[in-house]
Amino acid sequence: MGSNSFHLVIAREQDGSIQILHKEKQLVQLADGLDNDNVLSDAAITRGIACLQEFKQRFSSLPIPQVRMVATYTLRVAKNRDAFLQAAQQVLPYPIEVVSGHEEARLIYSGIAHTQVLAARNLIIDIGGGSTEVVVGSRTRASSLSSLRCGCVSYNQRFFKDGVISAAAFNAALSAADKQFASLSKEYFTGNWDLTLGSSGSVKAICEALLQFFGDDTVTMARLKQLKQKLIAWGHINKIQLDNVDSKRTPLLPAGLAILISFFRRLPVISLEFANGALREGVLYELAGIGTYSDVRQRTVDSLAQLYHIDHQHAEKVRNTAITLFNGVAESWGLQNHRHTLEYAAILHETGIHISSRAHHKHGAYIIANSDMPGFGEQQQQLLARLIGNQRKKLDLERLTLLEPSEKLLSIRLISLLRLAVLLNLGRIASSVHISNVSCTERGLTLALKEPKHRISLFVKDLQREQKQMANVNFELKFSFA
């Protein structure tokens, strides 16, 4: 129950991961009902209770241990919050947890840590409706938690209430936000962040606006200032022309932008990326009792392997072979940063086999390309799907041809390693064909095998077919025998 929106998420725990079954959001703008004395208006209470009455239809039959109701800033500060809580209890017989600012910040960091890979030094900002949480952390552990009294709904009410977007209104909002960020402890001003992330609706809306104007959603101070000038030029909320931004979020854009600009100018931040996870994910993973992995991507791969009943013993054999091949060529081909991608592809290469053994590579590619995969960026997920889809039989020449040259070269090299790893373990229950040496050139790869040619005649035929396939993408495959 946020200061701007109420969110309902119904999910299930599946093989150590969360699967979202249903999501719903209603714009309640609870913070809009707070007066200067922090008394919540009857109209705001009525909006919130009406939303809960509708949400009740979705989940009121669930037992209490499976439900967690969390309220944030507005109910945290409202002097008459008991009036809301008592009315809510009449609608939904579940305890409502009004979390502290520090607990909200902790849950936000936990949600992000569960959904993407974090670095050694992370700085995270979450601009809510009534408060802004700022967190410093290392990997999966938050070290400094802060909650500031500035939010997109409260600042919209204070500085942009009439819908007019002026330089004076922006300056007033920036000045107020500056005072909030200046109150942070010294840990926030050390700089040298490996990763700076922004989460929730306001940052997402700003990223969508930047994407429209600049072609990507990387947030920098220069871009924020340009967006600010565009908003001032439009002059009024009703004149904003942003096709990418949700129309319900647009009125709050100037307030959220002012807070984010203040964040950039008060703290040593160069750029910022959007984080998909936030408070809701933190609540869900804790409710499901799922701990934070040191590597979110590995948890995702392990979960998919369980979900699709991967033959772990065989997958591990293919992985070991793939890494043996990889070690022989990684430095020459510049693949050092892609070791894990090849490993994940080897572990998940038979994901689609329960649908069709004949075309499991195609089904596996579709599953991987369209699954929720916490920890994986879109490009990495698509590369993983591409490897799995080209692990055997004919190469997908049409799609490979459409790739940018560097991406195409990377894909072909990783595909060649995965295809050979699968081929070398084709007997499955038989012992793998052993490699004595791997070498490469810019145009291809040479494989030296320990067995004499006559002992592995069937495998030699497989290799010859593989030579023809790889020749279609101008890749030379050579081999020799003991």
UniProtKB/TrEMBL annotation:
Report the residue ranges that make up the Ppx/GppA phosphatase C-terminal domain in this protein: 296-466
Keyword vocabulary terms for this entry: Hydrolase
Q: Which domain of life is it from?
A: Bacteria
Q: Does the keyword Kinase apply?
A: no
Tell me where in this chain the Ppx/GppA phosphatase N-terminal domain is found. 9-287
- Quote the InterPro entries the UniProt record gives: ATPase_NBD, GppA/Ppx_hydrolase, Ppx_GppA_C, Ppx_GppA_N, PyroPPase_GppA_Ppx
Database matches in Pfam families:
Ppx-GppA (PF02541), Ppx-GppA_III (PF21447)
> What protein name does the entry list?
Exopolyphosphatase
Instruction: Output the lineage of the source organism.
Output: Bacteria, Pseudomonadati, Pseudomonadota, Gammaproteobacteria, Alteromonadales
